[in-house]
Amino acid sequence: MNESSKRSTIYFEPELHQALRLKAASTDRTVSDLVNEAVRLALQGDQEDLAVFDERETESTMTYKELLNDLKSHGKL
Which residues neighbour 44 within 8 Å (Cβ) at sequence distance 6 or greater? Predict the structure, then answer.
């Protein structure tokens, strides 16, 4: 752990904690490393989702009723 690391208390469900400890032991990593990686990946996924929302912001939208009518007109319903 480096000097800029911050400490936090996290409460895991017992089964998750056991699985996490076993994975840490079997991969020669710390629980902190595994948790940091998981949080980093989750935040990265959020960032990617938000980028897609921004890209699609100018796309036209349709109501549910319009969607059903479109599906019907194309023989899908």
Answer: none
| pTM of the predicted structure, to 2 decimals | 0.68
On the CB side of 75, how many CA atoms lie within 13 Å of its CA? 0
Q: Tens digits of per-residue pLDDT, 2-35?
A: 778 999 999 999 999 999 999 999 999 999 999 9
Q: Which of 2, 51, 50 is nearest to 30 (CA)?
A: 2
Q: Give the type of residue at 1.
A: M
Distance CA 45, CA 40 (A): 9
CA–CA distance, 5 with 10 (Å, rounded to integer): 15
Q: Where are the domains of the chain?
A: 32-77
